Amino acid sequence: MKEKSIPFYTSINDFLESIPVNHRTKNPMFYCMRLEEHKDEIYKAPFRRDFFFIGLITSKGKTNVIYNNQDDHIKESFLTFQCSNLIYSFYKEKNTEGYLIYFKQEYFNFLKFDFFNEFPFFNILNINLFQLENKKYQELVPVFEEVFKSYENIDVFSKVTTHKFLALLYNLKEFTKIQNELQLLINSSHSITNQYLKLVNVHYLEKRTVKEYATLLNISASHLSKTVKTETNKKALSHINDRLIKEAKSLIQFTNLSIAEIAHQLGFSDTSNFGNFFRKHTSTSPLTFRKNYTTR
Length: 296
Fold this sequence. Notes:
The protein has eleven helices and ten strands. The two termini are 14 Å apart. Strands 1-3-8-5-6 form a five-stranded mixed beta sheet. The chain is α+β, with helices and mostly antiparallel strands. The chain has two domains: 8-183, Jelly Rolls, CATH 2.60.120.280; 188-294, Homeodomain-like (Arc Repressor Mutant, subunit A), CATH 1.10.10. InterPro entries: Homeodomain-like_sf, HTH_AraC, Tscrpt_reg_AraC-type_HTH. Keywords: DNA-binding, Transcription, Transcription regulation. This is AraC-type DNA-binding protein. GO terms for molecular function: DNA-binding transcription factor activity; sequence-specific DNA binding.
């Protein structure tokens, strides 16, 4: 039976139970998981959570990470950072190995600086996933091991573990800084388009016009439209509409919300407007789409 809505996890242990894995954390703010201890294939349908995630993962098989409908197939190894409240799903095969760290922002309440400014790789506007060659993966393993050995061998509430984790974040900050400097070599058009698509993923529910995104990027709507069209061969507005359609499909497929409730959740004035919008972009009605999905 489908759940009432896309799950939103506020507890790390509730999330672990849903995967499912057997381990639980005694510290509700922090948890470290070695993937090799969980041999089974895992598919996790779309969900949201109010805590952060870091993953250093390698796989000889198929690993897919989807967040806010950005689908990344991992060829070898990767480093990823996720902030809270994103739509996220994943699939891993049995031979996947690596390190996962889950933590709540309150874990660092003792810090005096702004967390997102200090560690910008958690900001949705920045790069959050880095494909790695095996050599680079192996270089990062020891710094993750420092945290995991402390977590596994010392009291999980120990300040030693917290400080080692903080040291890891600063190490990764230096790594991502180097990677981002390489990104500066990418042309301006690609950069603008990349930022635009990320902004659409965050603000698509309340911002429906290209002009609103151009304002966020401090450029003209005309320049943004031309840039996105050149880079993607699609109109800028099409990306906004596509994002709405993807969210609508997720809600139709994975929840029992009525079409009227989905229309309201997506910000449409009434069911008719939502139905017309959905039909225009999918050539089918929301009800027909749900029926076709449930009869597969």
